[in-house]
Amino acid sequence: MLLMSLVATVTFTAGLTPPGGFWAADDKSNGYVAGMSVMRSKSYRRYLNFYYSNTTAFFTSLMIIGMLARNINNLQPTYLKSNIFKGVVVTRFMSLGCSYISGT
């Protein structure tokens, strides 16, 4: 649960401050607006890849935290061994990797 909380924190922070930061001032000649993501302006496809993979990693981390919290007293040990749980964990790792790659 600690690892999932850490991942949720990192992906939330990355969503608030995307790679490259934000434009500080308007630049009408280039069409930049203050507060717009620099990555979105420079490479829109990479930005979309980062945005969707980061969002997926964040929400799957929240789902895993919820699943683990539901099973806090080991009342349903087989629940965490299911293919659904494994699929969510794999999806989270893949999304986090894609987010990292597109952000660097």
Automatic annotation (TrEMBL):
Top-rank taxon of the source lineage equals Eukaryota
The terms describing its cellular component in GO are: membrane
In terms of Pfam families, this protein maps to: PGG
Record's keyword terms, sorted: Membrane, Signal, Transmembrane, Transmembrane helix
Q: Is Transmembrane there in the keyword field?
A: yes
Q: Which InterPro entries match?
A: PGG_dom
Which residue numbers delimit the PGG domain? 1-103
Residue span of the signal peptide, if any?
Answer: 1-15
Any stretches that span the bilayer, and where are they?
Answer: 48-69
Q: What is this protein called in UniProt?
A: PGG domain-containing protein
